[in-house]
Amino acid sequence: MKYVHWVSSAVYLTFLFPLLSMAQLAKYWVYFKDKPLAASYQPEKGLSPAALEKRRTLGISCWQWSDVPVSQEYLQALTAVGAKVEVVSKWLNAASCRADPLTLSRIQQLPFVEKITPLAYVLQQARLAQQQDKREYTLAFRQLKADAFIEHNLTGKGILIGVIDAGFYRAPSHEYLKHLFEQSRILGFRDIVSPHRQTDFFYFSETDDDDHGTLVLQMIAGWSPSKKRQYGLATEAKFYLARTDHGDKEFRAEEDYWIAAVEWMDSLGVRIINTSLGYAQDFDNPEDNYKPEQMDGKTTAISKAARIAVEEKGLLLVVAAGNEGGTTNWRIVCAPADVEGVLSVGATTPEGLKTFYSSIGPSFLPYLKPDVSCIPQVSAGTSFSAPLITGFAACLMQAAPEKTAKEIIQIIKKSSHLYPLGNNFIGYGVPDAKRALSLLQGDSATCPISKQVVSNKSTYLIPAKASSKQIAIAFHKSDARNVIEQEVIESTKNGFLVRRNGNAVRTTVVIDNQVVEIHWE
């Protein structure tokens, strides 16, 4: 669902036919065996000065095989056999093409083609919700202890952020985004879905979701000087915007648009990218649906590209975990939130429970997903939790620009209230801005954990001072990470009585700033 912008020399968009006629042809990724231009490639000709400077600052090699452009001769050969080339990915060394069965057989016979995979896809996105009032906004900031950033005048200044979404309709006239346009903080934009509408990028609407990106941008950088009301943390960052999703259609064939946007943003020196897209199920064509076991961080094309982005390019990808947590036939995070190294963000209630819709981490992954969670800035959707964490990351990056994306992500995780006892419902929990700044300065302290081992008992009493009613949050787990059930426990005059869930091996209990880990034996 999102973003568009000018195409760099390494990403080519060739729309040879109108979209309606092209939709009649099946779509494929065509992967190539090699890159003939590798020996002569010069980074200075493919990357902007800002991109080169970013890599030098982060100690990342300026020459990378994945930056080398795809051979033009290969692309011309695809066209010659009848393929309709749409997007060329230098990172994947592949091109997305539309082809009929006869053309496909011709492509398979080309000597430089390594493999061909069907390309179909859909992205799950949260539907638009009503803007929250001031009370809801202050609650989200309070949960993140965001006043610590405000006190240190951290606003994301100097940080380049990319936003990939379904559209940015009327963003220039939006009350909380006017400052970005008046201060020339929107550096560029691309509409990859409908490139012919580039001239009216902000003022043409094709679907009801075309202002979803506008709201997401508001949650990253929203600020109204007249009302003195702040919605985002990165109010002084600079942005590139891209539209890669058609809100009224759910088809996997847009996945290449997202990849084109990420490659384009990397070439311009972007350091953080926010996206609320997810590819899983509910496609218009059921045959395009992925299987849960494919959410392994390495199978889908979009996850492969996301891995390159975080492992080779030094990008910090913030991805909404997804809104499938309340479904019975899926529940888990969608690609590319499944990628290790991507900062995937879930949604919590004000009390700290996982919201019913927030997607959970698959039990088969060897790493934790989601990574962190927080209250969404509008009424519902992980799409509106992720932007808050994007602004959070931008403030930390402003404070320590020499830190790598991996280091910033690790600080965000360590600042969260459950670290290191993360679970597959809310990850490591809610980040704490004050604690994150301390960690940035070298402090190693994290939230204190109390471990209690209970033998041959089905209950455990956590003492508490007798006062007005308090609540605790409990996560009953089948092992160290996977949650069976979550619940709210009210205090009694003696404290909090925790009852063991029949299959629970461990239970994590959160009482204000106290975390107790109960081991049932």
Adjacency order of strands in the biggest sheet: 6-9-5-10-11-12-13
Number of strands: 20
If you compute it from the alpha carbons, what radius of gyration comes out, rounded to the nearest whole angstrom?
Answer: 23 Å
**What class do helices, strands and sheet pairing give?**
alpha/beta
Cα(first) to Cα(last) distance is 47 Å
Number of domains: 2
CATH class (first level) name of the largest domain: Alpha Beta
Low-confidence stretches: 1-24, 121-137
- CATH architecture assignment of the largest domain: 3-Layer(aba) Sandwich
CATH superfamily of the largest domain: Peptidase S8/S53 domain
Helix fraction? 10-25%
Shape call: globular
Mean pLDDT: 87
Count every helix, treating DSSP H or I runs of 4 or more residues as helices: 14
Instruction: Predict the CATH topology of the largest domain.
Output: Rossmann fold
- How big a fraction of the residues is strand? 15-25%
Explain what the structure shows.
The protein is of the alpha/beta class. It folds into two domains: 1-441, Rossmann fold, CATH 3.40.50.200; 449-520. Helix content is 23%, strand content 21%. The chain has 14 helices and 20 strands. It has helices spanning 19-22, 43-46, 49-58, 72-80, 101-108, 134-143, 147-151, 178-182, 212-221, 255-267, 301-311, 386-399, 405-415, 433-440, and strands spanning 26-32, 84-89, 94-99, 113-118, 160-165, 186-191, 223-224, 229-230, 238-243, 272-275, 316-320, 343-347, 372-374, 449-454, 459-463, 471-477, 483-490, 495-499, 506-511, 514-520. The two termini are 47 Å apart.
